[in-house]
Amino acid sequence: MVAFAVLLASFAIPGAGDPPTAELERVAVSGRGFVLLPSRTPFVPWGFNYDHDETGRLIEDYWIDEWPKIEADFREMKELGANVVRIHLQVARFLRSPTEANPDSLARLAKLLELAESVGLRIDLTGLGCYHKGDVPPWYDALDREGRWAAQVVFWKAVAQVGARSSAVFCYDLMNEPVVSGGDRPPGDWLGPGFGGKHFVQFITRTKPDGPRVRVAADWVERLVAAVRSVDPNHMITVGMVDWSLDRPGLTSGFVPSVAGAKLDILAVHVYPERDREAEALEVVRAFAAAGKPVVIEETFPLKTSPERFRRFLHDSKGSAAGWVGFYWGKTLAEAKAGKTIADAITASWLQIFVDEREEMTSPEARAEGDRPPGSLER
Questions:
Q1: What span, in angstroms and rounded, lies between the C-alpha atoms of 159 and 225?
Q2: Bridge partners (DSSP) listed for residue 101
Q3: Which residue, of 1, 2, 137, 274, has the greatest Cβ tally within 10 A?
Q4: How far is CA 337 from the centre of its chain?
Q5: pLDDT tens digits for 109-137?
Q6: How many helices (DSSP H) and strands (DSSP E) are in the chain?
Q7: Which of 172, 185, 303, 144 lies closest to 228 in space, CA to CA?
Q8: Sequence-separated (6 or more) residues with CB below 8 Å from residue 56
Q9: How far is the C-alpha of 168 from the C-alpha of 47, rounded, in Å?
Q10: What is the pTM of this model?
C-alpha cells in the first residue's frame, strides 16, 4: 500500500534465488513453512510487490506496448535476489461483463507466467483489483452482493485456468485487503479511501450483514476457494489481509485469520512497522501465526520507521513469519541512490536492506517452525 516509487538493482547477486528454469518445482505447505515438490527443498518467499511502475501505472497499462520493460523489470528483481513477485490484476482488464472474461488479458497473463518461468520467479497472483476508481466498470459497481460475488467467481475461474498450467504460480491471493462492511454504504460505493491515487481496500459487502461479519468473510473465502479449486487443485490460496483484521476492540476488517483463513493454505498479512511501535507490529504477526498456518508478510516497507529499526523488525519476525514481500516499482538501486527526493532515499534504503538480508532471511533456519513435522504436507 505504499505510494512512493520504488526500484531495483541492475547488478547480479551470485546464487540469488532459484536458477532460471523452464519448469519450476511447485511450492507446498510444510508445517508452518514451505517446501518445493518433489525435491522437498525448503523454500522461503522473499520478494517484491510489482503493483505499479515508477510513474504509478498499473501493469496492465503497459504490458502490451512496453513488454520489454516488463522483461527488464523481472530480470532486475531476480538479480536483486527475489524468488517471488506479487502481481495485481484488475477487474476492469479481466472481466468484460459479469459472465465473460477478457481473453486478451488472459493471454497476456499466460505470457507473463511464461516470462516468470524463464527467469526463475514465482508469482503471487493477486486478483479483483479496483485500484484506479475511474477504470472500474459501472456495471460492476451496480451489482448487488450476490451479483458481485458471482462475477468474482467468473474472474477467478478464468484466471486460475491459466495459472493451473504454469509452474510459476506461487499462490493465488483472492483480493487485496478486503473488508466486510459494518454498516450501510451508498449504492455503488465498494472502495475504501484512496491512497496515493489508488484504492487498495475493497468491501465485499455494501450493506450491514444480517449475521456476524466473520461468518460473511468466511463464506466469501469459501466460495472463491471453491471456484479456484474447480480448475486448479494444486496451487496455494490466500487473501491479503490488513493488520487490523484481528478480533480485537476497535477497527476490524471482519477477516479474522482463524475464521476467514480456515479454507486458505497461507495467511498473508500487510504490516508497516511504526517507529517505537515495532513491538506492536510483531505482535500482529505472532497473532496471525497463532492460527496455525504459514504466515507471509505480503506487504512491508520502512515507510514509518528507520532502516535499522526495520531490519530488526524483519529479523525479529522470523520466528512467526515464513516469508516476506516488499516493493519494487521500476527504479534500479543505483537510480534510487542518485535520486534527490525523500521517496528515492527510502526506496534506496529498502532495496539495500533487501540485498543485504536476503541470505540470512531465506536460510532454512529462517522458516517458522510448525506443530507438524517438516514432511507433513497440507497442500
A1: 13
A2: 95
A3: 2
A4: 26
A5: 999 999 999 999 999 999 999 999 999 99
A6: 11, 17
A7: 172
A8: 5, 196, 197, 198
A9: 14
A10: 0.90
Amino acid found at 366: A
Whole-number Å distance between alpha carbons of 351 and 302:
10
Cell numbers at 69, concatenated? 520493460
The Cα–Cα gap between 220 and 319 comes to 30
| Cβ neighbour number for residue 275 with a 10 Å cutoff | 11
**Residue 332 · residue 10 · CB < 8 Å:** yes
| All cell numbers assigned to 160 | 486460475
Cα–Cα separations (whole angstroms), residue 345 to 49, 287, 334, 348: 18, 32, 11, 5
Cα 171 to Cα 322: distance, rounded to the nearest angstrom: 14
| End-to-end CA separation in angstroms for the chain | 29
Q: Is 292 exposed, middle or buried (0-12, 13-18, 19+ CB in 10 A)?
A: middle
Distance of alpha carbon 183 from alpha carbon 162, whole angstroms: 37
- CA-CA distance, 11 to 212, in Å (whole number)? 51
Q: How many residues does the chain have?
A: 379
pLDDT, tens digit (0-9, with 9 covering 90-100), for 165-204: 999 999 999 999 999 998 999 999 999 999 888 999 999 9
3-class secondary-structure state, position 237: strand
Backbone angles phi, psi at 330, to 5 degrees: 105, -10
Write the burial class of residue 316 (CB in 10 Å: 0-12 exposed, 13-18 middle, 19+ buried).
middle
